[in-house]
């Protein structure tokens, strides 16, 4: 039966039926995986924001005789925009998976993910506070 309130214990089913913990070792490894996964989310979010700043700061192509030059190959700015969109999709998927893991209602999983997000933010994104304040989103699933 699925829990609908926060509970504490080593028996948890996470994301799929085959990911069940039945011992303290498997539970601690699951918590470690949640922590690493949440920290990785912050790393990927940092990468996405950096690609986004590359896409917006890259100068436009030079113009010749009043008309803009149209390159035969996509320029670096379009590649950065594509990478930003791809990373946004990956980050959205990671964020929703983290949210679904928290919805297991296990207290240890909740704490592991929140601590992983906080440590990942400290390691990868705390230096960008003043640069990307407008792009900041506190929700792990967006």
Give an overview in words.
The structure is a single chain. With 142 residues, the protein is mostly helical. It has a domain at 20-58 and 74-128. It has three helices and four strands, in the order E-E-H-E-E-H-H. The strands form two sheets. It has a two-stranded antiparallel sheet. Strands 3-4 form a two-stranded antiparallel ribbon. The chain has helices at 24-57, 76-102, 107-125; strands at 12-13, 20-21, 63-64, 67-68. Helices cover 56% and strands 6% of the residues. The model has no long low-confidence stretch (mean pLDDT 82). The two termini are 29 Å apart.
List the helices and strands and how they pair.
Elements: E1 12-13, E2 20-21, H1 24-57, E3 63-64, E4 67-68, H2 76-102, H3 107-125
Antiparallel strand pairs: 1-2, 3-4
Key terms for this structure?
142 residues; mainly alpha; two-stranded antiparallel sheet; two-stranded antiparallel ribbon; 4 strands; 6% strand
Low-confidence stretches: none
- The helix/strand series, from N terminus to C terminus, equals EEHEEHH
Q: Order of strands in the sheet with the most strands? A: 1-2
Q: How many DSSP-defined strands?
A: 4
Assign a percent range to the helix content.
Answer: 55-70%
**Which structural class should the secondary elements be placed in?**
mainly alpha
Protein name: Copper transport protein
GO molecular function, one term: copper ion transmembrane transporter activity
Subcellular location: Membrane
Keywords: Copper, Copper transport, Ion transport, Membrane, Transmembrane, Transmembrane helix, Transport
């Amino acid at each position: 039966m699925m829990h609908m309130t926060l509970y504490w214990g080593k028996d948890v089913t996470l994301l799929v039926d085959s990911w069940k913990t039945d011992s303290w070792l498997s539970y601690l490894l699951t918590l470690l995986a949640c922590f690493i996964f949440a920290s990785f989310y912050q790393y990927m979010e940092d990468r996405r924001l950096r690609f986004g700043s590359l896409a917006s700061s890259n100068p436009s192509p030079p113009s010749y005789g009043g008309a803009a030059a149209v390159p035969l190959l996509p320029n670096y700015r379009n590649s950065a925009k594509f990478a930003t969109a791809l990373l946004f999709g990956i980050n959205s998927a990671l964020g929703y998976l983290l949210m679904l893991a928290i919805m297991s209602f296990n207290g240890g999983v909740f704490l592991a993910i929140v601590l992983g997000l906080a440590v990942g933010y400290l390691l990868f994104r705390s230096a960008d506070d003043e640069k990307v304040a407008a792009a900041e989103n506190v929700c792990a699933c967006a």
